[in-house]
């Protein structure tokens, strides 16, 4: 290796290391299908949580990128949240309130924003999401983990 390419390599490595230290920790949310084979009409491509980690008392948005092989005219979304494997929250939403219906064949984004109580304990949680059509047939079922951290404990005054 000559001196120029060695120097460029060192600069590139130093830059990558600096970026790693300066950027907030970006971690991909690992999504698991309830059925290990993932044989669902709706395929989930990823989940983005903002902010990550979630802060109690502040809004948190869960963006779920997905695709469907068939048009969906209606349905519901069931959400189950567990803390240390204990179900702590359950809710159901009309699918057409979460996304514009009908959902056409192809890619779509399901976005849900919620503000957690300020008394929500910090820690690791598991969210299970089930999407059903208007006939109550299951279109997809996934689970993923997310973290809740306490907000800033120091007053800004």
From TrEMBL:
Residues 1-28 form the signal peptide. It holds the Pfam family E1_DerP2_DerF2. The keyword Lipoprotein does not apply. The keyword NADP does not apply. It comes from the Eukaryota. Residues 31-146 form the MD-2-related lipid-recognition domain. SMART domains: ML. Keywords: Signal. InterPro entries: Ig_E-set, ML_dom, ML_PG-PI_TP, NPC2-like. This is MD-2-related lipid-recognition domain-containing protein.
